[in-house]
Amino acid sequence: MPYRPERLAEIIKKEVSDMLRDELKDPRIGFVTITGVEVSTDLRYARIFFSVLGSEEEAKASLEALNRARGYVRSELGRRIRLRYAPEISFKLDPSIQRGIRVMELLHDVKERGAAGDD
Question: Could you tell me which Gene3D superfamilies the record lists for this protein (predicted)?
Answer without folding.
Answer: 3.30.300.20
